[in-house]
Structure formats: structure tokens, C-alpha cells
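Researcher: Next entry in the queue.
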Amino acid sequence: MEPDSTTDLVGEAKRRTTHLRVDVRQGDVHALPLEDHSVDRARIDRVLHLVADPTAALAELRRVLRPTGRAVLAQPDWETLAVDPGSVATNLAFNRFVCDRIVPNPVIGRQLARIAADVGLTVTSIEADVQLLHDFTTADELLGLTRNAHRAVEAGRLTRRAADTWLADLATGPFLAAFTLFRVTVSAA
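Model: Structure for this entry, 189 residues:
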């Protein structure tokens, strides 16, 4: 993420939480700028699939949570991404490329509960549901379908023809994209 966009996001988070007792800070998830046992509640939402070390990030969460603290962790499992219409083979090749080259921790969603327990957090609930998108334009913006199909072509993982045909099929719809989102609630005690 570019520094300017990070600053914009921190500013937006502060603006959205002015009416709440929330302290918004910028920091590294691997070394949070917080005292030990100083946090009552936390939420880590669609971040861990992009960090260098999700286990270290969850260990940091454990360090900063108060003994009565709770956190909700929400992460997708990118191997479950399915889209329709379009070639199933191209969809699978696209997924493989994204999981191999774009998302550092593509299956962290399914690993959340185990890793949380491994770092000493108590898992109090595990939920999973399918996220559905019915609009290609929205899905393309959120999931980077076009951007990552072009990257897959550049990397030699898809042919230009296969990518163009797949994207054209997706854009003409009716369209559906689905992936699994895991939510794990943890406590420090």
C-alpha cells in the first residue's frame, strides 16, 4: 500500500469513529505500537492474507489483549473463489495464479482457529459463510479479476486469448462470484 493511501485510510477510520471510544493508530501488525495487555477489543478483517507472518501478527494480538480482551478475526480463503460464467479451466488457472503469486497467505481463513490457538488465544467461536457477488463491475473492483488476469498473462499462466475470453464471458453475465469467509472469535484468557 502506498504511504499516501495509508494516511488516507487512517484519516477515514478516525473520521468514522469520532463518536466512539476508539483509538485509531497506524502501525505494523507484527509490532503493534501498544503496551502489553492494553486492548479490550480488536478486529482483524481481511488483512492477514497480505502480511508477511500471520502467526507473528496473531502473537502480537495476544500480547496486547487484556486478560478479558476479545477479538474477531475475519479472513477469506482465496482457494475457494469461484466465478460464473466462463471457462472452468481458466477460473482454476486464475485462482492458482492468485494463490501462488498475488496473495501471500491465500488459505489463512481456514487456518485462523489453529494459528490463534497455537499462539495462546482461546478460540470461542468459528463461523464460515459464502460471500456472493452478483455484479461483475463490483466483483472486478473488489477481487481484481481483470487486473490479475492480465498479470497471469504476463506471467505466462494464462494465454491472452483465454484471459480475454474469460473476462468477456464474465462481463456479459449473468454473473456470480463466491468465496468462503471465515470468522473466528478469540479471547486472551
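Model: The radius of gyration is 19 Å.
Researcher: Noted, moving on.
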